[in-house]
Amino acid sequence: MDSLQNQPHDLLRVEGLKVAFPLLRGELTAVDGASLRVLPGKITALVGESGSGKSMTGQTIMGLQPVQAMVSGRVLFDIGKAEPLDLLGLPRDGRMIRAIRGDRIGMIFQEPMTSFSPLHTIGNQLSEALRLHRPMSRSEARERCETMLARVGFPHPGRVFDLYPFELSGGMRQRAMIAMAAICGPSLLIADEPTTALDVTIQAQILALIRDLQQERGLAVLLITHDLGVVANLADEIVVMHRGQVMEAGPTAEIFRNPQHPYLRGLMQAVPVLGAKGRVRLRPLREIPAQGILELARMSQQPVAMRAPGARPLVSLRDVTKAFLPRHQSWSLISSNAEPVTAVDGVSLDIFRGECLGLVGESGSGKTTVGKLLVRALQPDSGSIIFDDGHDVVDIGEAEGKALDALRTRIQLIFQDPVSSLSPRMTVGNILSEPLDVHRRGTPAHRRQLVMALLRAIGLSEGAASRFPHSFSGGQRQRIGIARALALAPEFIICDEVVSALDVSVQAQILNLLKDLQKELHLTYMFISHDLGVVNYMADRIAVMWRGKLVEIGPRDLIMEAPVHPYTRALLAAVPVPDPSRPLDIAAARTPTAKAEAHWPAAFREVRGQPVRMADLGGGHLVRMQVLAEPHDLPSRRVVG
Amino acid sequence: MSTPNPLPPPGAELTHYVSPAPFDPMAEPAGATTGLENASQLRLMWIKFKRHRVALISGVFLLLFYASLLITEFLAPYRLDTRNLDFIYAPPQRVRLFHDGSFVGPFVYGQTMHLDMTELRRIYTDDPTNVQRLRFFCRGESYMFWNLVPADLHLFCPAEGGRVNLLGTDRLGRDVFSRILHGARISLTIGLLGTLVSFTLGIVIGGIAGYRGGWFDHGMQRMIEVIQSIPSIPLWMTLAAIIPLSWSPILVYLGITVILGMLDWTGQARAVRSKLFALREEDYVLAAELMGAKSSRIISRHLIPGVMSHLIASASLSVPGMILGETALTFLGLGLRPPVTSWGILLTETRGVNIVALYPWLLWPMAPVILVILAFNFLGDGLRDAADPYR
Asked: Which sequence ranges are marked TM in the entry (chain B) (predicted)?
């Protein structure tokens, strides 16, 4: 036995795996002869875009593929015997495979919100996983679970044991999920997009945790992800999948240094990265043939000259505050005395004509609320949002009637979700002409011409006008969403996480399109994103939000290369770079963010009774700090990355 | 440096493998072209609906049944009120094709009746010498088509001087088969009209509650809860009692329709409300608001089309309830009254146990009730599945 373990061998070996689904006509091959392996105690990353078959591979290894799937090939798993076991040969959901699931192989899913049962405590679910495979007493199980919870970074495991999943944040749940997957001491962990739903700082912590477990316990990991940055930081070996086939495989350093296959090369060029390199025009996998932008500019009714950059800001927010009341029970007619949640807390900033202002922050930082205030989907509780186009000065929060109607044509929003943002019951032509119909722009013939011009500008054929949104891919739908926002020839467009639902290869397309449109149509953008690489690529200036407050704002280069506020620094440090030679600072990531504020230098801490202000560091660089602190109290600017 | 196999031998160092497969960035992913690119919502629904075999068959069945209401007088061999005093409580006659080993086409044997004086009942026996061939597309009993045009054409009629009672006769010697066909007119339309009433109430009330929310929504929700908590039969009885005895049968019919509709709208309203709540959160509704569209446009262009398919499905599921409601009310003697004839009226004849024991063919009106209700349920099921073609 021992000698066997010392021999070089594969822990998991997938040979020629094929998974197909019967369709109305023919069949759909999701995985097409994929082969890969995971060495004991090593991390193999399975990389691919959506639809590449990577998740299906992971599920099939566990025997969790849909019932109608037709599977062939071999999945050899080492169980410490002379011959590895072929998992595909086991009866579906039989005793053998169930003994392996959870015991020998643990699994972590993408969505921490839905992977726990809401009705049972964390401890209950953890000890269930444990006692299924290792019969033991309750108290013994509790002890083992608490040890595991402590190991994944809960300071008070005894308390967490008795909590319900809803009492934990997303990152905490993902930790608990890892504890559950690892509780029986499996030799393999399948992690399907374990950090995709998390904020960057939390992502860095989870990555650090997975790495620690791997090193301490000799845990092998099959990491399924689309994020090359995550891969570069964690993986020992990489397998790149595309349409169910393995395109390229190799050791991490080799793959990143010398990508060979045109698909992988294209993928790597399409990812926006931090640093100066990230500002070179991206090369999308598929260029879109968009030539109609100039024509569109000609057809728009606003004369371009009016949009020359001016000294006065186009939009200025002053002390804008917005709070939400927690949703109370519908039958309580008397007002509840629940504390309102302040989503936006005294934000002041200017957006200048023709620029792209990036707004970054983690979930819950209030950046989307700022976007909604700017398009008047919400009204601020206090403060003013002045829109000044050189002729009229309007307060966006106060406008009513005609002024509001006019405003609606000047400011538009592009949505995050390309599925939900287009009505499934209207043709693309109707969707694009709806804004024109609403505002009775031009004759029907002119509207039709404009719709065609819009379609050409986003690189779709005119035939698209009679089709329905369901027949377009995510990237094409997002382009249609952009065209709809452009229909009324607005000058200010808010892009709310416009590429976060898209694959990287499509992301580059959309970003380039937005850039071209901005240049030709003289647009002003507010670009809201949690992805610092994307913001680095798009924005001229960057504003950073933290818990509803603006903590730092300045020109992109200053924010990216010489951030001052500790929160900005933490954000930047947590971004995984798709380059194995620039690994994440794992030690820094181990500090939980909830406590991060306590580690900040005194000048930045938010203390009751200590007034704060935006200190001007020169060059348009402002940072939130205590009034009493002097700029020279700041830690010296240093270049990160 | 590339090897044809991406897998090294077990445990060996991984070499850099590059797939020889070409990469065409413009190629469409497999399965992307379904030939449905230009398909509208309706067409997608239809394609999905067609796959639900039972629902499709049910739909065709219902369509034919409803179409038959237009020509009931032609299909039925007898009028609603035609009596044959010689044949009271006669059992169903079997349609035969062969007589004495030779083919004669569809015919029935004539029957002779004698009174069994010990059991005091009429006994009918087939008379094999009396072959009565059915006639088709024939001149038979005269009737007023749609109460307007005098006519006497029938799909089939008995032989000259003979009779045909496929499902027997009742206590007045009336043909049960003809009465079922005539009763369908009332029973089937009461279901549709009642659903129309409840549908309209449901869309308007549920729509306002769903779009406006606030106090109106509150009030409506509480009201619906109260209405739904009242036991239905006493409530029906109360409402039916309000209908004055002096009303003409047709007014009673309309009154019953409204009563059924008034009690059923609550479920519709809730469905509309919750669906609107969900739709209001969709980004495309916000997009319409942000382009400056008025509420009326948003409701009519975006919200109502979004809920319509679901509404039609749930409406088709509520028709059976209406039909059953009418049948139950009438059976209790609270609904329609003769001479209006519905399936419920026909079934009131079967209230005695002795009837069920002696004249079981009087229960035949239950067959169309069951068939129609099943068909509506299957149809509604299929429509509901088809209503969301993107799943």
From this structure: 54-76, 186-211, 250-267, 311-336, 356-379
Q: Are residues A246 and A395 in the same domain?
A: no
Residues A342-396 pLDDT 10s:
889 999 999 998 899 999 988 888 899 999 999 999 999 999 999 987 777 889 9
Name the closest residue on chain B to residue A471, using Cα atoms.
Answer: B37
Whether A636 maps to a domain, the answer reads no
Answer for the pair B318, B195: CB distance below 8 angstroms, yes or no. Answer: yes
Residues 6+ apart with CB under 8 A from B225: none
Residue of chain A with shortest Cα separation from B293: A438
Q: Which bin fits A548, alpha (ψ -120 to 50), beta or left (φ > 0)?
A: left
Could you tell me where in chain B the CATH 1.10.3720.10 domains are found? Answer: 178-386
Which 8-state DSSP code applies to residue A134?
Answer: S
Q: Which residues contact A586 (CB under 8 A, 6 or more apart)?
A: A204, A207, A208, A211
Q: How does residue B1 score in pLDDT terms, banded at 50, 70 and 90?
A: very low
What is the rounded distance in angstroms from the CA atom of residue A57 to the CA atom of residue A121? 31
Instruction: Mark whether A234 and A359 lie in a shared domain.
Output: no
The full DSSP string for A235-284 is -SEEEEEETTEEEEEEEHHHHHHS--SHHHHHHHHHS--SSGGGGSPP--
* Cβ contact B60:B68 at 8 Å: no
8 A C-beta contact, residue B288 and residue A431? no
B102-116 and B121-133 beta bridge pairing? antiparallel
User: Looking at the domain assignment, is residue A606 inside a domain?
Assistant: no
CB contact under 8 A, A13 and B221: no
Q: Which residues pair with A358 in a beta bridge?
A: A527, A542
Residues A327 and A337 occupy one common structural domain: yes
Q: Let me know if residue A276 belongs to a domain.
A: no
pTM for the whole thing?
Answer: 0.80
Around Cβ A407, how many Cβ atoms within 10 Å? 22
For residue B61, CA distances in Å to B54, B67, B368, B374 come to 10, 10, 11, 11
Distance CA A213, CA A182 (A): 9
ipTM: 0.81
Sign of the Cα torsion A366, A368, A370, A372 reads: negative
* Boundary (domain end) residue, out of A170, A185, A200: A185
Nearest Cβ partner for A415 among B13, B287, B297? B287
Cβ–Cβ under 8 Å, residues B365 and B343: yes
Contact list, A53 vs chain B (CB under 8 Å): none
How far is the C-alpha of A459 from the C-alpha of A482, rounded, in Å? 12
Rounded CA gap, A522 and A314, in Å? Answer: 13
* Residue B192 structure tokens: 């549709």
Q: Which B-chain residues 95-124 have CB contacts (< 8 A) with chain A?
A: none
Which residue of A lies nearest to B302 if distances are taken between CA atoms?
A423
For residue A256, what is the nearest residue in chain B, using CA coordinates?
B16
With respect to CATH, is domain B178-386 assigned 1.10.3720.10? yes
Min CA distance, B376 vs chain A (Å)?
A: 26
Q: How many CB atoms lie within 10 A of CB A518?
A: 18
The verdict on A394 and A491 lying in the same domain is yes
Max CA pair span of chain A: 84
Segment (H or E) for A211: helix A200-217
Whether residue B18 and residue A260 make contact (CB cut-off 8 A), yes or no, is: yes
| Closest to A580 measured CA to CA, from A117, A184, A133, A43 | A43
**For residue A352, is it within any domain?**
yes
Under an 8 A CB cutoff, do B23 and A29 touch? no
> What CA–CA distance (Å, rounded) separates B72 from A53?
59
Q: Residue A573 and residue A567: Cα distance in Å, rounded?
A: 10
Tens digits of residue pLDDT in A130-158: 998 888 899 999 999 999 998 888 888 88
Enclosing domain of residue A474: 310-546
